[in-house]
Amino acid sequence: MGYSMPDYVLAIDIGGTRTRTALIDSNGRIAARASILTRPERGVDDSVERISAAVRQVWGKVPRRLIGGLGVGTPGAVDAQRGVILIAPNLTGWADVPLREQLQRALGLPTEVGNDANLAALAEHRFGAGIGARHMIYITISTGIGGGIIVDGRLLLGAQGFAGEIGHCTIDVDGPRCKCGNVGCLETLASGPALARAAQAALAAGEPSVMVALAGGRPEAISGETIAAAARSGDRLALQIIDQAGVYIGAGMVNLMHLFNPELFVLGGGVSNMGEPLFSAIRRTIEERALAMIRHGMRIVPAALGDDAGLLGAAALILQAREDHHG
Ligand SMILES: [Zn+2]
Description:
By secondary structure, the chain is an alpha/beta fold. The chain contains eleven helices and 13 strands. The chain has helices at about 45-60, 100-105, 115-125, 185-190, 190-205, 210-215, 225-230, 235-260, 275-290, 290-295, 310-325; strands at about 10-15, 20-25, 30-35, 65-75, 75-80, 85, 95, 110-115, 135-140, 145-150, 155, 265-270, 300. A hairpin with a 4-residue loop joins strand 5 and strand 6 (about 85). The longest helix is centred in the C-terminal third of the chain and has 25 residues, at about 235-260. The chain starts with 7 loop residues before the first strand and ends with a helix. Bound molecules: zinc ion.
């Protein structure tokens, strides 16, 4: 009692290419923002120094006492308890990085670190498409597939903070090899690169498609965006590939439904922008495969926060930590 929420938090969203930082108020409004190139290959110390400078820039004239803390989202495997990046394939050379400690030392603020997909789930739940949901699952489908599971209004972290690795759920026990070592992970079947590989294989087998022309005559240049554009023009192969992806994603969602009985799925990331052809395949798969009682009343909606989900999630992490602390 007597406790009031901090007026502002600082947020950092580290990406393989860019790192964004912002000053965000407790209602999720971004008051100032800055963006720098991450340049992970220059080493952690160099990046942390430049990221800290960008944070000071957005911090501006807001007094220290109005800042509740610093939230950080990063790709890869994060030990959220200790604030350590264990391994991040998109951050070349970064392994066992004590990021919380380094940023705390540089900026003097209480700091929390989380996996970017987990934080996007928190953001959608607090500020976006999942407001008011108590049981929600967020899935982001782009170059990789990740997610976050909200149970009883809280992000599920698991024993070490790795819960919600939806991209590495096995969908096809004899499927293609995944970067993680397993075979048939959802990510090997329905991520942007997986869809591109499916398109390239079909084209190599002689199937006609406008995708070749859209990719400037170079099938190796086909991406998720190429497939989306071809599908919008009614291309049969593109629609077939998206439909198949929807079946795989839907099957993954059916597994999650039976485990967590969510009221809401929020789908984000580039692949989910493929819209109706993807969503109708997902809905059909759920209709065919999930227990009727568990799919009753469940909703599937697109993410609402776009590129700011990472920053807002980093802010939400601090807001949640403060609420927990103060009861
Ligand atoms: Zn995997």
